[in-house]
Design goal:
Helix 1 crosses helix 8 (about 175-190). It contains 8 helices and 5 strands; from the N terminus they run βαβαααβαβααβα. The relative contact order is 0.20. The chain has a single domain, classed as P-loop containing nucleotide triphosphate hydrolases (Rossmann fold). The protein has helices at about 15-25, 30-40, 45-55, 60-75, 90-105, 120-130, 140-165, 175-190; strands spanning about 1-5, 30, 80-85, 110-115, 165-170. The two termini are about 15 Å apart. It is of the alpha/beta class. The longest helix has 25 residues, at about 140-165. Strands 2-3-1-4-5 form a 5-stranded parallel β-sheet, sandwiched between helices. Bound molecules: BIS(adenosine)-5'-tetraphosphate (B4P).
Amino acid sequence: MTRMLIIGPPGSGKGTQAERISARLGVVPISTGDIFRANVKGETPLGIEAKKYMDNGDFVPDSVTNKMVRDRLSESDVENGFLLDGYPRTVAQVEYLDQILSEGDEKLDVVLQLTADDEELVSRLLGRAKETGRSDDNEAVIRHRLDLYHEQTEAVVAQYADRGILTQVDGIGAIDEVTDRVLQAIEAAQAV
Ligand code: B4P
């Protein structure tokens, strides 16, 4: 049973690595960004609401995001563990997640932070823009998402560091190399 988070700035490889880690460890990946994008595509009420924020690179309000995560974590497939990708991103979301987990007498085992410098991140995301045309991958919006990460999500990272469950992994290098580092870091964190 593993309950994990993967945190990192936009473009650090969270989604890329989350897919690989969950396949290897048999835990369910839950990406709030992917859930929002699926809802935007399906033009659901949640998607219509989320799109207003995502296109500008802003966070979707906690009131919307928290409820969505609560609903997802109440599904039966997460009983053997999960890997949350992109949540929590604010201190209020950390508190909300603590509450959900404590109701089930559960706790997080590992929080993985992927690190990379801002210029590398901008160049990766501009590369992705050419391939996928994601509406939030243009330079002004990318830089705004990075600013929000520094302003709000670094405080989330600091909280988990204080709790002693944070493991940092260098996100620079070939994707396979980063996967090897991540898997080693999880193994080391679980051996403690
Ligand atoms: P996300 O989907 O989480 O978007 P992201 O931060 O850009 O990360 P993503 O997972 O897509 O990119 P990755 O690093 O894997 O969120 C999108 C939006 O949804 C947010 O801006 C917000 O509006 C909303 N949202 C989501 N969660 C929320 C929350 N909790 N609260 C409020 N709002 C929320 O990789 C990016 C690129 O890098 C890829 O093209 C990949 O191929 C490349 N890459 C990966 N690893 C690489 C490597 N080692 N070398 C070179 N390239 C690499």
